[in-house]
Structures
1.
Amino acid sequence: MDLIISILLGAFAGWIASIIMKTDSQQGFFIDIIVGMIGASLGK
């Protein structure tokens, strides 16, 4: 269950970060997930 929540929160965080950095059109959904999960793991 933690993995699913981590993926969803990572996708949301990555999506928000891509909008803030204005790279939303350059990246896909999966890159947003990966970036968000890396950020979440670094923040722990």
2.
Amino acid sequence: MLRWTLALLPLLAFAQNVVDVRPSPQQIAWQQLEFGVLIHFGTNTFLDREWGDGTASPDVFNPTALDAEQWVTAAKAAGARYLIMVAKHHDGFCLWPSRHTKYTVAASPYKKDVLRQVSDACQKHGLQFGVYLSPWDRNAPAYSDNKAYDDYYTRQITELASRYGPITEFWLDGAGSEGHVYDFRRYIRQLRTYQPNALIFASLDLLPHADIRWVGNEAGYAPEENWNVIDGYEVLRWRPAEADTPLRKGHWFWHPNAESRLKSLDELKDMYHKTAGRGAQLVLGLAPDNRGLMPEVDVARLAEFGAWIRNTYQKPVNPQGGQVTDGDPETWFEGNPVLQLKPGARFDRAVIQEYLAEGQRVRRYRIEARQNGQWKTIARGSTIGHKKIDLFDPITADAVRLIIEAQLAPPRIAEFNVYLEP
């Protein structure tokens, strides 16, 4: 046993080098999704509330035109690739007919399993599916007893993990949980018994050993310097950031007469560049109304946003071909790539991606454009990670190059392209 322990020590020390910490295949696949949505719908929707206290009668939950496919197709039109459904918010009301509480859709006039409809719609339209199950429960009688509540919460995890198909992401929200002791190890073991590939989201202070971390705000931005490797309980882990923000300012649930809070297209563009464009995952909060439909103005804004993403980033300015412009995340270029552009090429942004299967390596870089034989710096940045978008004034040039100024190890550049916003 001593011999085994001594042999393992060099490996543990090696793993504590930041550049040697690598993502799992599941984390790589998740980061390539880039953009998802988080849907809030429940008794709060019918009571003009953001936070329920667990006393609302199930009778208030009575959507007359619920259409989960409309939610999913609206999210897909925006460019989202996955959907996280709030199965139970802090008020404890369950959007599926849980066998372990009467506080569910089964006790409402609506009766139907909302979670089933959403998971089926995601599968039909090609969105990956995730669930949010609030640890804080203001209705459960067992909540004041840690052990009894752990039993209850674990049984609910089992229901969600065994009934609704593959779960890409499991959200743990720490709101309201101060002073309560949760058996997270038990929760995770139970979840992965049924969903071994599910990634777990939580804030660093709530759960230091999860797979995904909260970016730290709900404003829709990540810091410009954004590392995927963080220190959790003195152990380095690959834990990429997810940036969640609602489509309507300050409102996760729908509220009547709140159309003025709908974010403008320009605000969504800025949010996109400061989340997905800084290597973080973007999660946009959507809220069906009391009919059970996404409001028409929200649907239109989502379609507008999705069209802008496609029109701006679908086709690069530089000619296709070459390892850093092939769109294949499995190929990479070591060194400082140079793109030869067509004469008169005009562009106003650059997109860089690292090959993350070998870790995150770039610490600082600059981008230069060649005009009349002279190289000119047009952008500077720190980290790259999964994706970095740099914006600058429109420029015409015949070549553009990426210069790595500081690195943890020889960089692996998977993609380097320039674009022009229509």
